Amino acid sequence: MNSWINLDAVWRIVVVGLLTGAGLPALFALGLRLLNPPGPADGPSTGRTTPGPVGYALAGLLFAVVLASIGWGISVIVGHS
Amino acid sequence: MTGNDAVLALMVVTALGFDFTNGFHDTGNAMATSIVTGALPPRVAVAVSAVLNLVGAFLSTAVAATIANGLVASGEVTLTVVCAGLTGSILWNLATWYLGIPSSSSHALIGGVIGATVAAAGSSAVKWQGLVSKVIVPAALSPFIAGLVAVAGTLLVARITRDVSELPRERGFRLGQIGSASMVSLAHGTNDAQKTMGVITLALIANGTLPAGAKAPDWVILSCAVAIALGTYAGGWRVIRALGKGLVEIAPPQGMAAESASAAVILCSTDFGYSLSTTHVATGSILGSGVGWKGAVVRWQLARRMVTAWLFTLPAAALVGAAAYWVANGIGGTAGVVVIFVVLVLASVAFFAASRYPAVTPENVNAAWTGSVIPESAAAKAKGKAKDEVGS
Predict the structure, then answer these.
(1) pTM of the model
(2) pLDDT per residue over B252-291, tens digit each?
(3) Which of B86, B1, B23 is nearest to B223 (CA)?
(4) Among B151, B160, B183, the residue to mutate for chain A (most A Cβ within 10 A)
């Protein structure tokens, strides 16, 4: 680390940024997929199969994780006061 | 003493004016993607963003003094320097907004203040190492980091939901987009409103109105928060259009990935002590969401134009800031500051008037991109053919 560029901070931002900035949308997408399982192959978008109770529970858990992370994000902002 | 009070009042008004341009210049960073995908109606989007900027401005006031402190020797700062610097910042912001270029308001602010400081006290008054390590290096890296995160997010999201049917997918991601864009607005209020608070506080300290090391007074926090929120609500439709329609045609999953990447990178860097430009991050994220999306067309030519403007932001704002200082100092005293203030007001009115013909409005902001920030319908209307076409 030198005084012109803080490489330590840069790679941390990359790693944490990827985990939260790409990971959370991926979890959200996973939840969305669980709520809308792909229908049987007979029709393009007609098949609105419903998720089972496990699907609902898992999707709920994923959305909860995403919401909790947003809460963490806000606490990071407030924590700097 | 009354002359000094007048200069002080002009400085505060100029700073709040900058804060206002900061708001409308940057609305697009948070809301451009939500507006173009139809997740939120344009006016609702800017209203939500304005409220969150207002809230964000009150959340934290820690970095308020650091922006100018680490960059210029505060002993050299006078009210005239701050007024001249802000003049450079505002004029650059208005020029880039008029051209529909999302350039960094933070860089405009820093450039203006540095230019005026150099003009007043010579280049030794600038902490160059602070400038490189705190401003230039992060600016060069942040679009790439944000772009990388957005590419990864877009790829993942597209892969995971590829066999979810169209309707629930679009609906779901629009919702997610609103959430992630709201986070960007909140982070923007926290970061950018404070920069103006910092400059006003610095000037008040330099003037002896506040003791050294004082925190931003309540009236400064309140007025800056309101100014940035009003600016955000005014909506920089030109910049919103360039970011949301110009760079990439954005679908809701991309929009969510882009805004999540922006929010994550801005918040992480704040946590690690980097004060990034929201604009650079948002532009990098939107480009990344285009790169990661199969079949998306990224208009690199427009992106290059934006990056060119970024390179010019610091020096251009600095030059105008320096010129404004020379004029103000040449005339001298209160009269000098009044003169640059009047010139600034006239120039701002001119930019505003020029932007009306033809205007980019909430109604035509989503019109198909035809290579220009001015929608074809508005351009035709301006030429006399009153054929208004509202894009969906």
Answers:
(1) 0.88
(2) 999 999 999 999 998 888 777 677 888 999 999 999 999 9
(3) B23
(4) B160
